[in-house]
Design brief:
Elements (H helix, E strand, L loop, with lengths): L2 H8 L2 H29 L11 H18 L9 H9 L8 H22 L1 H6 L6 H4 L13 H22 L12 H20 L5 H14 L7 H4 L3 H20 L4 H5 L31
Helix pairs in contact: 2-3, 2-5, 3-9, 4-5, 4-12, 5-10, 8-9, 8-12, 10-12
């Protein structure tokens, strides 16, 4: 195969769908964080602060719309941890994992850059354009000072475990899969619920593409110590979600899914994305992993 042919296969429709859906996820989700920070900075004594709930709603909508955008093309994983977990349980080709992760990371990176451009006037007016203490948190997450390293890792593992576990149920036609077209809304609702329960510990990244890629973008933009802050916290929203997603997928497969034995006997290189559960009326050519979308 020629070099253009190889590149064309890598940067195909699935790649473009993962890239764009993850860009939407970061742009809308982190945009809600930007609004939260700017509105709270402007509150005066006696005025009600902008509630953290606005971020919960913002990210729920971001996940939902990202899923609708790419579900029928790539499955709308939007999360490297999801792609890896699916490959581990042999519901996704390992050969596609690098393509998906690159697309997701690039989507998160350029989503953060676009958000920076959109808010650059407000950042400049605030006098804190590159004030990492105040505004780098718009783009990536940082832990609450009252949490330990072990607690932070557990937070990310549990959050992503819940995400993957619930989403596996949402696409399982042998369980209680919702009607066609409803799954992305419920995935967004899952992220909303996780944010309500665990959001203030570490910002519920539960997605390396949502955290590491924007963090890298802010480092390039000139924000200082984005990798050092929080006692080098940056690795936790990478490792924690990967562990949690794998645990969630494996737990559902062994404890709930009827086809676990059959799936374990299948070779990973034979498993197509459609070998998951053909859910929500998806055709045989659709990647029905849309329910396994992550924030």
């Amino acid at each position: 195969m020629t070099t253009p042919g190889i590149l064309g296969k890598f940067f195909d429709r699935e790649f473009r769908a993962e890239f764009l859906s993850t860009l939407i996820l970061v742009l809308l989700g982190n945009g809600s964080v930007a609004q939260y920070k700017f509105l709270n900075k402007g509150t005066t004594a006696g005025g009600p602060p902008e509630p953290f709930l606005s971020i919960n709603f913002g990210y729920a909508c971001a996940v939902t719309f990202g899923a609708y955008l790419a579900a029928g093309v790539s499955g709308a994983h939007m999360n490297p941890a999801v792609s890896l977990a699916l490959a581990v349980i042999k519901k996704f080709k390992w050969g596609k994992v690098p393509k998906y992760i690159v697309a997701q990371m690039l989507g998160g990176f350029f989503g953060a850059l676009l958000l920076f451009v959109v808010y650059i006037d407000r950042l400049m007016e605030s006098g804190a354009l590159l004030d990492e203490e105040s505004y780098s948190g718009i783009f990536s997450t940082f832990p609450n000072g009252e949490t330990s390293t072990g607690g932070q890792l557990l937070d990310q593992v549990v959050g992503t475990f819940l995400l993957m576990l619930i989403v596996c149920a949402l696409i399982d036609n042998n369980n209680s899969a919702p009607p066609p077209g409803v799954t992305p809304i419920l995935v967004g609702g899952t992220v909303f619920s996780i944010g309500l329960s665990f959001g203030t510990n570490c910002g519920y990244a539960i997605n390396p593409a949502r955290d590491f890629a924007p963090r890298l973008a802010t480092a390039i933009l000139g924000y200082d110590k984005v990798f050092e802050r929080g006692d080098y916290y940056f690795w936790i929203p990478i490792v924690g979600p990967i562990i949690g997603a794998i645990l969630g997928a494996v737990t559902y497969m062994f404890l709930i899914e009827e086809t676990s034995t059959k799936l374990l006997s299948c070779a990973a290189d034979e498993a197509e994305p459609t070998d998951i559960v053909t859910s929500n009326g998806a055709s045989d050519n659709d990647e029905v992993e849309m329910a396994k979308t992550a924030a």
